[in-house]
Amino acid sequence: MPGIPLSVLITGANRGLGLELVRQMAEGPSPIRHLLACCRDPDGPNSQALQDLAKRHPEVVTVIPLDVTDLGSILRCSQWVGSLVGAGGLNLLINNAAILTKDTMQTASPQDMLAAFNTNALGPFNLTKTLLPHLRTAAAASETAAMSCSKAAVINIGSFMSSINRTSQGYGSQPAFSYRVSKAALHMLTVCAARDFRQSEILFAVLHPGWVKSAMGGERAVMEASESARRLIHVMFSLTEEQNGAFLNNEGAPLPW
Ligand code: NDP
Question: Most CB within 10 Å of its CB: which of 45, 65, 139, 238?
Answer without folding.
Answer: 139
